[in-house]
Amino acid sequence: MALLVLIISTHTLADSVSLHLFRSPLGINWATPWEMTVSTLKNSVANTHGKRAFSISHVFAEINCNSTNEHIYRGQTSIENSGERDLLFKKKYGMGVMFFTYEGKFEKDETILNDMAPYEGSERRGTFTAIVNPATCQRMLRYVREYEERGYGNIYSGLQADPLKGEGSGCSAFAVSFLRVGGLMEPFVKEWQNVIDVPKRFVGGPLTGNKVSIFKLLASPGAKWSNKEAHIHLEAWNPERMLEWVNKTHDFVLNGGVMEGLGVSIDSVGESRHVTVDLYDRATPYGPIWLI
Predict the structure, then answer these.
(1) Rounded alpha-carbon distances, angstroms, from residue 215 to 86, 112, 155, 254
(2) Could you tell me where the DSSP H helices lie in 4-159?
(3) C-alpha angle 173/178/180, rounded to 5°?
(4) d(CA 144, CA 117)
(5) 178: which of 161, 253, 284, 285 lies 20 to 30 Å off by Cα?
(6) What local confidence, expressed as pLDDT, does residue 82 receive?
(7) Closest among 82, 134, 73, 135 to 105, alpha carbons compared
(8) How confident is the model at residue 291 (pLDDT cuts 50, 70, 90)?
């Protein structure tokens, strides 16, 4: 393990939230509707040698409240065989699959640790950690308990869903929601999101009532994300951009760079890079957690 500490935190045993990031086998290309479709299809059939594929990338959240000796891992996914392929190939949802709500599976500790272990040291894996104060950590624990109690873990929603509005969630929106609940997102929003306008002519299913064959998408290599026609605006948290940020930040600090206003430490295991940001002094938000 290589270790470099830029700023030695005085909060060595402080509470923390970590996002464990996993890139898809071949990478998802968001450049155009065609690139996204083709790269997603390639990833769905990539050989991952028996490991969990994370074929469209994935994020797990880890909450470690040392102050109260509480330590959990949580994640959000769809149940197996939840019909994604049928929606795309048989029901002709086209890019409507990005906005569909599936039956969800709330992932927890041992399952998550088992799924992560084979990727230790892999370039497909990286970790972001924020050091937080005890009040913020307890707010996050309260949030995840209520999330499960309300049954939201049973809802795996499309990329547009907001878990804080009770809409269910995809994996990345769920993981990021811990930072939002803790008032920690401001430095990272633009770096971690893809903002696109999806032409409605490529969106089938309930949102439009249309049927869009996968072949229509594959036959449109010149199409672009565009707000100059009927479209659906989408702001989506992208695990691959999040991992790119971790890798870029790691290398920047390794080469002597300083992150203005942030205390940063870095380490790595093989090709897996880890960035820790000290946000202990960020004030814990008050008021309701939920936006409903």
Answers:
(1) 14, 36, 29, 45
(2) 33-44, 84-85, 109-116, 134-149
(3) 80
(4) 23
(5) 253
(6) 58
(7) 82
(8) very high
